[in-house]
Every structure is written in C-alpha cells, then in structure tokens.
Design a protein that fits this description.
By secondary structure, this protein is of the alpha+beta class. The chain contains seven helices and seven strands.
Length: 191
C-alpha cells in the first residue's frame, strides 16, 4: 500500500537506511531512523508512536522477506537487506528517475536502440515501460528517441536490468521528417 501525500513511507525510509549502511544493529538503526523521521516532520507525534511505526514496519519488512534479522558476532540483533529487499530498493531508486530538461534544445536527438532476446521478454517490456514513463517517443518497437541528454539515466537502467550490451545510446544530429517529433516534444524548432 502506497502512502498518501502527507504520510511518511516508513518502508522506503527503513529500506533506504539499511541499504546505505548495509548490515546494521537494531540498537543503532532505531535511534538513527527515528532521528531521520524527525527531519520528515514526524516529530509532532509522541516518541512511542515513532518507535511503534518503526517496529511495525521492520516486522512487516521481515514478513515480506525484504529484510532479515540476524545476530552479529557479539549477539546483537542486526537488520540486513535480502536480495528481494535490494531489488525493492532499486525499484524505489528507479521510481525517482527523471531527466533534467535544459532551457534550450541543442538540436540533437538521443536515440536508444535495443535488441533484447525473447527469453528476456519481461525485461524488454519493462524497459519500454520505463522509456515511456521518462518521456521517450517510440520510433519502432526497439527504437526510442528523446531530445535531451539522458545518458546517465540510460546507464542506470541498463545496469539495473543487466542489459548493458543489448542497449545502444546514440546522439544524432538529424532524424528524417522529424517535424512530428519536434511537435511531440514541444521543441518548436524551425528546420
């Protein structure tokens, strides 16, 4: 269940905290996580409320197999991300992806071409969904175009889906009959 606009996503906050720190002690995690919650405006609630939400969220994350409680060599309970938790954290990172648009278009297109095997169809479809979400326009099923520099975003997508060799990023000066693309992207470029 996604939080409402005015609610804190404890799940995301805790997964991110664990993801940044790696394996951390519950004794260390709880106070630091609670302190970080104060930064997000949760400080108006009583202290036991924050601890309650924190503990409830960690329990839920463990039931969902996103984190695992383990004991370190000193017998202290620690929380670490499972592979499923790492994958969920990557989804959170991807969901925050955006491409910065400069004030002026440099008159170049960025073209993404991919040839992803049929047995990776799910990944191929997910990549298409992300390209559409980011504002790319489809020229053909495996050829997408965008007017602004987005190489960093593509590197992240390729790395996340483990398709580095199957995706090409091109910067091109001209696309034949591109008036419809300029209109689609709102470039108002006179050619």
């Amino acid at each position: 269940m996604e939080p409402k606009d005015n609610q804190i996503d404890y799940r995301k906050l805790i997964l991110t905290t664990i993801g940044v720190a790696g394996v951390i002690s519950m004794a260390v995690l709880a106070p630091n996580a609670l302190q970080s919650l104060l930064l997000f405006g949760v400080g108006q609630r009583k202290k036991y409320d924050k601890r309650y939400y924190f503990n409830k969220t960690v329990d839920r994350l463990e039931r969902q197999r996103l984190v695992k409680l383990v004991k370190n060599k000193n017998g202290i309970s620690c929380v670490r991300l499972t592979q499923k938790g790492i994958d969920q954290l990557k989804k959170y990172e991807l969901s925050e992806l955006k491409i910065d648009k400069p004030k002026k278009w440099d008159s170049k297109y960025r073209v993404v071409i991919f040839d992803i095997k049929e047995w990776k169809r799910g990944i191929r479809d997910e990549l298409r969904t992300w390209l559409l979400h980011l504002g790319f326009v489809r020229l053909q099923n495996s050829v997408w175009v965008y007017p602004y520099d987005c190489e960093d975003v593509l590197i992240l997508l390729k790395s996340n889906f483990k398709i580095e060799k199957e995706v090409l990023y091109l910067t091109v000066d001209k696309i034949e009959n591109d008036h419809w693309l300029q209109k689609e992207f709102g470039l108002n470029q006179i050619s």
